[in-house]
Amino acid sequence: MTKPAAQSKSERIASLLEAEIRSGQLQDGSALSSENCLVSRFAVSRTTVRKSLGILAEKGLIRTKMGIGSFVTYAGNVIDSGPGWSLALSSAGIRMETRILRIARLGMDLEVPVPLAGEMLAVDRLRFRTETGRGMSLERARVPWRAEFAALLEDGLDGGSLNRTLAARGLVPASGEEWANVLPSLGAEDAALLGLPEATPMLRLRRLTRDTAGQPVEFVESLLDPELFGLHMRF
């Protein structure tokens, strides 16, 4: 009888972390410990820890972004902007809908980490669970205004998609940057939209994309329910 091959250190650590994730000890959206903490906890090298994280990433249990870190994704699925939301949540058995709250022309009204001013095409969207109506995210997109956007104020987005609308007009991101922090207290208006208590702390992600010439394409601020999503920053 052939004996099963012994697990390597990285495989054993990955198995332990996987068990914690699947058992609920690490909730969906919870941050993993930093690499330094894992090195100390398991008394292994950083290389071994990174191999373990790579195993978990291949299984879709975590995502690692260069310079940011590793974190448990929603229901074990990677969720990014664009179609990634719908595909990931659908595969996890989550029924979700998107409601466009506003399409308007206005001046920049969001806190932007880099200089970005002038008139904007504003598109505000709410993603919520179909069964309960509870909000999962509130997203506010701002795109530097163009005359060709005027028709959108009456006709709406192409197929209900801002990504598709921008791409059809030659606005395709080539690079970008992202910031993450915690919004300590959710305001009354946003709380009502999301169906959450006032003063609830939220995860806030802000993303600016640019075209090949380095000009801004789109700035998006997303408020995410911290019970569902989490981000671990490594620095």
UniProtKB/TrEMBL annotation:
One GO molecular function term? DNA-binding transcription factor activity
Q: Please state the span of the N-terminal signal peptide per the UniProt entry.
A: none
User: One of this protein's GO BP terms?
Assistant: negative regulation of DNA-templated transcription
InterPro entries found in the cross-reference section: Bact_HTH_transcr_reg, Chorismate_lyase_/UTRA_dom_sf, Tscrpt_reg_HTH_GntR, UTRA, WH-like_DNA-bd_sf, WH_DNA-bd_sf
Q: PANTHER family under this entry? A: MANNOSYL-D-GLYCERATE TRANSPORT/METABOLISM SYSTEM REPRESSOR MNGR-RELATED, MANNOSYL-D-GLYCERATE TRANSPORT_METABOLISM SYSTEM REPRESSOR MNGR-RELATED
Say which domain of life the source belongs to: Bacteria
Coiled-coil positions are: none
Pinpoint the HTH gntR-type domain residues.
Answer: 7-75
Keyword field contains DNA-binding = yes
An example Pfam family from this entry, by short name, is: UTRA
CDD domains attached here? Answer: WHTH_GntR
Recite the UniProt keywords alphabetically: DNA-binding, Transcription, Transcription regulation
Query: What name does UniProt use for this protein?
Result: Transcriptional regulator
Keyword Cell inner membrane tagged? no
